[in-house]
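Project outcomes to date are best conveyed with an example. Our students and postdoctoral researchers have been running inverse folding experiments weekly, and each run begins with a structure described purely in tokens. The record below, which covers 337 residues, was selected by the lab manager from last quarter's runs and is presented without edits.
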């Protein structure tokens, strides 16, 4: 049990603007008993940004599982609670989702990532966002262009979403799923919307998040490595949208330009949170493969991590633990930059 606890560390980023708390998942080649600012590594790290009101652990502690996995493979990982969520200071912004959709967290997240890079001696970070966290990730990548070396976007969206659905629409959706007649009418409605969409051509819908799309084009066109993971939606397969809905994935891939390094992967069998067994395992494997391709460790680092991972595994065999344990904190470190 001791090894699992010592592999994580609570930290505080208390520079100007906001106080942000997070969890550092140490790599196997880091000294668990040494202060993190004495590690002396120059390596890319992963920073997890949750969506809306989710804490840095995400649903089912799935971010804990991923961060542990990537740290074990040599990539230091960090889970942050942005102001107003989880353990961080401040109240949630008014009209929280609208605040996120217009890039409200970009400045704060950028400042904290700069603190993080300096605090942990990183060469840069890959920002991993989920749902509305992908919106913050894209805006932040444009603001912290030097520190952000890549993006992982899980179920991103590019329209101006609203919290919840009108009650009557929710009831109609349930009826369409449970009733044969409802299903037929739903399919007919989709086809009519599809005809309308065809007649509109490539014109963006009225609810498109134009500032986000402009920011996406700015970031993706630079050649920044980007991995997009898409869970299947209702009446969809792969990354194709539901009939009658605008194909944002096709649009963003076109707008990314020729220099772009955007990879899109469907995650079959996953739910939106990617917290089910199929989803969490597939996400881990997709991100690992992408990291190995875009941010490979040096041979020296690979050898050190492999050797120390084996030692860690030998120690864990004497202290059986579960990878699904919630985050454990042993050291609280306040940073003053």
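After processing, the design step wrote out the following sequence:
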């Amino acid at each position: 049990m001791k090894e699992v606890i010592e592999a994580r560390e609570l930290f505080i980023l208390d520079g100007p603007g906001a106080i942000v708390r997070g969890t550092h998942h140490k790599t196997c080649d880091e000294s668990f008993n040494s202060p993190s600012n004495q590690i002396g590594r120059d390596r890319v790290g992963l920073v997890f940004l949750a969506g809306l009101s989710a804490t840095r652990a995400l649903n089912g502690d799935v971010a804990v599982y991923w961060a542990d996995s990537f740290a074990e493979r040599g990539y230091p990982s960090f889970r942050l609670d942005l102001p107003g969520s989880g353990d961080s200071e401040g109240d949630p912004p008014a009209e929280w989702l609208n605040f996120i959709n217009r890039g409200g967290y970009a400045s704060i997240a950028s400042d904290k990532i700069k603190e993080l890079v300096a605090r942990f001696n990183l060469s840069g970070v890959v920002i991993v966002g989920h749902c509305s966290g992908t919106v913050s990730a894209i805006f932040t990548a444009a603001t912290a262009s030097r520190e952000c070396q890549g993006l992982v976007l899980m179920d991103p969206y590019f329209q101006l979403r609203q919290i919840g659905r009108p009650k009557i629409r929710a009831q109609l959706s349930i009826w369409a799923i449970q009733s044969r007649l409802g299903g037929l009418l739903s399919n007919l409605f989709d086809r009519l919307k599809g005809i309308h969409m065809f007649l509109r051509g490539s014109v963006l819908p009225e609810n498109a998040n134009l500032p986000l799309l402009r920011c996406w084009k700015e970031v993706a066109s630079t050649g920044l490595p980007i991995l997009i993971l898409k869970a299947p939606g209702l009446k969809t397969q792969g990354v194709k949208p539901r009939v009658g809905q605008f194909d944002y994935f096709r649009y963003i891939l076109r707008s990314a330009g020729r220099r772009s390094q955007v990879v899109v992967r469907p995650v079959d069998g996953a739910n939106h949170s990617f917290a089910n067994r199929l989803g969490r395992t597939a996400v881990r494997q997709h991100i690992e493969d992408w990291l190995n391709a875009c941010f490979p460790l040096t041979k020296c680092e690979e050898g050190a991590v492999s050797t120390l991972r084996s030692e860690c595994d030998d120690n864990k065999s004497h202290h059986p633990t579960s990878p699904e344990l919630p985050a454990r904190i042993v050291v609280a470190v306040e940073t003053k930059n």
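Confidence is low (pLDDT under 50) at residues 316-337. The chain has eleven helices and nine strands. The training component of this project remains on track.
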